Amino acid sequence: MPTPGPSRQGDPPERVVRLVPDVPAIHRRFDYTVPESMSADIRVGSRVRINLHGRRVGAWVIGDNVVPPVGVVPKPIALSSGEGPPERVVALAEWAAWRWAGPVSAFLGTASPPRVVRSASGAFRPGQTRAGPGPSDSGPVSSPGGASVGIVAKVLGGAPSLSVVRLAPALDASLIALELIHRMGAAGVLMLAPSHTRASQLADRLRRSGVAVAMLPEEWEAARSGESVVVGTRSGAWAPLERIRAAVVLDAHDEAYREERSPTWSAVDVVIERGQRDEAPVVLVTPCPPVVRLEQGALVTTERAVERRGWPVVEVVDRTGDDPRTGLFSERLAQLLHSVLDTPSGRVVCILNRKGRARLLACALCGALARCTRCGGPVAQKELGGDLECRRCGHARPAMCGECDSTRLKVVRIGVSRATEELSALVGVSATELTGDSADTADPGARLVVGTEAALHRVSRVDAVAFLDFDQHLLAPRFGGGEEALALLARASCLVGGRQAGGRLLVQTRIPDHEVLRSAVHADPTLLSEPERKLRLALALPPFGVLALLRGPGSTDYAEALRAAGGLSLSSADPDRWLIRAADHRTLCDGLASTPRPAGRLRVEVDPIDV
Questions:
Q1: Could you list the residue range(s) of the whole structural domain that residue 510 is in?
Q2: Tell me, what DSSP letter sits at residue 403?
Q3: What is the 3-state secondary structure (H, E, C) of 269-312?
Q4: Helix %, strand %, coil % for the chain, to 5?
Q5: What domain count does the chain have?
Q6: 291, part of any domain
Q7: Which segments in the chain show pLDDT lower than 70?
Q8: What CA–CA distance (Å, rounded) separates 584 from 181?
Q9: Residue 390 domain-assigned?
Q10: CB 459 within 8 Å of CB 477
Q11: Quick one: CA dihedral 234, 240, 243, 245, positive or negative?
């Protein structure tokens, strides 16, 4: 830590840099001197080691040639730790710390290489030009043709701006990337995908077309050179490019672009900000654009006939008048399973977003719901004949009624484990259960997969996808529940292909006229986005207002302090959970930044998705 003391007369002025330590709890900046031996290696963004409060910690340089406070003699930097993000990305991290109310060190850590990178190892420096052959010395990329030509022409037709490309699920989004590279070249182009699998597939597709690719985070040094297309996932938004020339975000609606840990930043918003700062076109590709993105950018679509071919035939099974004794499995579902599985290579995925064997049980005699005897929460039975386990506190007890001691329990709402057992018995085919807790991918030989929505990300091409209980998605208690439900159908559509592929998508519901289902059936996402926009406008929900959520024991004290900030509206359902409303992000983020945080544990979520 800098210590006060007199400066020595006659000494040449020392080079002083401003640092932010790699300690999220410390929000202060510190001034340190640069030893002569390190001078050539230290610049804005460099990673260093410093002595702070009696221990050595990592830090980033965020300012160069600064003037320390009067009467303070900075200590020297202890060690250089190599390259870090470029100067413009450091400035972007400062903006993100304000935008999502978090420490700047959290963003600088994401923007830094996973290992030490020295300048001598080939990392690019600002103003440096590489000599000799490099990864970008491939020939020009050919145009892929088709609808991508017209789409990219619209994107690049005007001034650099944000474009939202609505592309049907079964259409190849990589063609848009190739057409953009054909017109602009590979250098300085940033491309994001929502998962490592999708990012690897995109990188392979580009390489087969002769495009030089730097994959993050493994090829951070190559990305820093600025000579290749940079491909990554959420963290790729912080690619070490001094400037981006263009950016493409595939499946821009996907929640994987949102960081679950605090600060809850969005990679899509980071890329949009980079595009605005660098005056570069940003293209968001998605089959179902969220209302927030539609309000931010210009919508670009394909011809209606092309879009319809990119969605599969969606069959909606109305279960409103069905006998409740049939449970989750309608007659039409059984017909679909038999028709697909009777063929030697037929594969079906059934989705039920409830884990466990039974999610809700009741006594067959007195009708009382099975609840935890300790906390009163719901209990589940993970295996046939097993104990009842509380999903809230973990307490286990024998499978018997807490009111009349009967051991006869009936299933009110089954989970995916019980559904796997019953579907296997129904069709006579061994079924595989697949949830977020299962192995990374499904057995390639599994013909019947039953699982949560995680199964949609862990299986390859299938002949049919069936949603056993889609009402839980249509009635999700979140203001973005409808958009999430349509995104789920779009993901399933990727597995079965478009209309010409012959795949089938079956949805069981008691709300057959819901806007989400009509959008999927008619391959027209505007049937959802238009009423959704009107509803949000009336209720001042994003993008027509902004939200933040406070959680934890310190949330009440922080909420009370925020009342003095002005322009913020606060409400609370319980003492440890507060919702903040504001007219725009500037009002909200300025209020959060200017209000000191209390000592208690506190989590701040800007733009929460679960309200």
A1: 314-356+415-524
A2: T
A3: HHHHHHHHHHCCCEEEEECCCCHHHHHHCEEEECCHHHHHHCCC
A4: 30, 25, 45
A5: 4
A6: yes
A7: 1-12, 120-139, 159-160, 323-325, 355-362, 367-369, 374-378, 382-385, 391-394, 410-413, 439-442, 444
A8: 35
A9: no
A10: no
A11: negative
How far is the C-alpha of 76 from the C-alpha of 42, rounded, in Å?
A: 12
Same structural domain, 344 and 459: yes
279 and 319 belong to one structural domain: no
Give the residue from 179, 180, 508, 174 showing the smallest Cα distance to 337: 508
CATH number of the domain residue 569 falls in: 3.30.70.330
Report yes or no: 363 and 403 within 8 Å, Cβ to Cβ.
Answer: yes
**Cα distance from N-terminal residue to C-terminal residue, the chain:** 42
303: in domain: yes
pLDDT in tens, 411-422: 656 788 888 999
What is the C-alpha to C-alpha distance for residues 523 and 305, in angstroms, rounded to an integer?
A: 10
Within this chain, do residues 173 and 298 fall inside the same structural domain, yes or no?
A: yes
Omega before residue 263 within 30° of 0, cis: yes
The residue count for the chain = 611
- Decide which of 58, 87, 121 is a domain's last residue: 121
Is the domain of 296 the same as that of 338? no
* Spacing of C-alpha 433 from chain mean position: 25
3-state DSSP call for residue 496?
A: helix
Inside any domain, residue 265? yes
Model-level pTM? 0.87
Q: What is the CATH number of the domain that holds 233?
A: 3.40.50.300
Q: Map 140-191 to HEC letters.
A: CCCCCCCHHHHHHHHHCCCCCCEEEEECCCCCCCHHHHHHHHHHHCCCCEEE
| Among the listed residues 545, 594, 586, the one whose alpha carbon sits nearest the alpha carbon of residue 565 | 594
